[in-house]
Amino acid sequence: MGKHVVCKVSELPPGERKIVTLERRSIGIFNIENSYYALKNVCPHYKAPLCKGVVTGMTLPSKPKEFNWGREGEILRCPWHGWEFDIKTGKSIFDPHKCFVKSYEVTVEEESESVETFEVTVELGAVVVHI
Known about the structure:
The structure is a single chain. This protein has strands at residues 17-22, 25-32, 35-40, 54-60, 68-77, 84-86, 103-104, 119-123, 126-130. The strands form three sheets. A four-stranded antiparallel beta sheet has the order 1-2-3-7, with no helix packed on it. Strands 4-5-6 form a three-stranded antiparallel beta sheet, with no helix packed on it. It starts with 16 loop residues before the first strand and ends with a strand. It is an all-beta fold and 131 residues long. It has a single domain, classed as Rieske [2Fe-2S] iron-sulphur domain (Rieske Iron-sulfur Protein). The chain has no helices and nine strands. This is Rieske (2Fe-2S) protein. It holds the Pfam family Rieske.
């Protein structure tokens, strides 16, 4: 898969998401506290548009009669059947070793004002552009 610029940092504030199509794949990009994550926009259960689901938190391990809520903004719930996935890893909450969605690397890079250029050579009288 190639490298694709999807938006400026200012266009995706913390807690927001953006769904894009890259190389014929629907992918959701999420900003969690200024760290960026990308997941394939397909739930493995029934192929629902996963990244359109609710972003929430989850209950954490706790002592009896205690209720600990955490990881707010890190859990994605499928809009069709409620399956939950960790946005940071793509792993499901109920079975992280067997059920997951594809995740993609996301980087933040400095914007360049330069124009894209390509190497041009002359070979036996023909002009050739190398992309």
